[in-house]
Design brief:
There is one protein chain. By secondary structure, this protein is mainly beta. The chain has one domain: Jelly Rolls. The chain has an 8-stranded antiparallel beta sheet. It is globular, with a radius of gyration of 18 Å.
Length: 281
């Protein structure tokens, strides 16, 4: 039976009325896995995570987690910080920005039994209200045979599209050298839509659709007293700029880029919430 971790269950739940203002993700067909889901805000965004079960009931939620307070990301799709006085653009070869560390970061953790097939909806809202960007990290699942693909969903509201929210999707191996996985990611709009992108390795433009930067040198750091995990070119990501005035749905697939690279991965989303309609008038 699936159970939420005691430190993450029902701690700082978002009000149900605010769910419609959040970003909505779906993790499907989970079984035999321990999940850890973390949200780190960018700037003034103070994330809350709400996990709903198949019946639409709150399964777990969290607003502030001490365990995630030191987590930070340096990624190419994140907004660049203003350069310090005297710093020139040429002094940094890697362009991008950071998210975290922040005491407002949120974390939920739970396990799903081996005999179960569970689907969860993950909603990220902003305690400070209004538009904002964040990084959502999902850890725990693994891909094994090369034909095995884990499927996730992302429901984009009309407000997110109208506000041209960014969407970066990363498939990362954060457990080298023990884990040999070369993770790949595919992003497609829902049924009937003509949009599909895939990235098998950020090391080569020929292996990724769209404008992708080699991830070598970018980092994920879990704690101040731990060395940062350096990403590699074998890690993958995709980036699209949302737009339009109608809601849309994306399918995200994570898989092994080669038959001999299997194991656990981290799936990251860099995106944001939309400005409510009345705020855009």
């Amino acid at each position: 039976m699936a159970t939420a971790a005691p430190t993450a269950q029902f701690a700082g739940c978002a009000d149900e009325e605010t769910w419609a203002t959040g970003a909505r993700f779906f993790a499907t067909q989970l079984n035999g896995v321990s999940m850890e889901i973390t949200a780190v805000g960018i700037g003034d965004f103070d994330p809350q995570i709400t996990v709903l079960d198949e019946e639409g009931q709150i399964f777990a939620c969290n607003a502030d987690a001490e365990e995630a307070a030191e987590l930070n990301f340096f990624l190419p799709t994140l907004p660049e910080a203003e350069m310090a006085e005297g710093e020139s653009e040429e002094e940094s070869e890697l362009r991008g920005g950071t998210a975290g560390p922040s005491e407002g970061s949120a974390l939920v953790a739970f396990s799903v039994g081996a005999e179960e097939r569970r689907t969860f909806e993950i909603i990220v809202t902003n305690e400070n209200e209004g538009y904002g960007e964040f990084v959502l990290m999902i850890e725990g699942p693994s891909v094994f045979p090369a034909i095995d693909r884990d499927v996730y969903g992302l429901a984009v509201s009309a407000e997110q599209n109208m506000n041209e929210v960014p969407l970066g999707v990363y498939a990362l191996n954060l457990r080298l050298p023990q884990n040999p996985l070369n993770p790949a990611v595919r992003l497609a709009l829902g049924e009937g839509e003509n949009f599909e992108q895939e990235c098998r390795s950020s090391s080569s433009a020929s292996l990724c659709d769209g404008d992708v930067t080699n991830l070598t040198g970018y980092t994920v750091q879990r704690a101040e007293d731990e060395a940062a995990i350096e990403l590699l070119g074998n890690d993958s990501y995709l980036f699209v700029q949302l737009g339009g005035d109608e809601p849309s749905e994306f399918v995200v697939e994570v898989f092994a880029s080669a038959a001999n690279t299997t194991g656990p991965y981290a799936l990251l989303f860099h995106t944001g919430t939309g400005v409510p309609n009345e705020a855009m008038e």
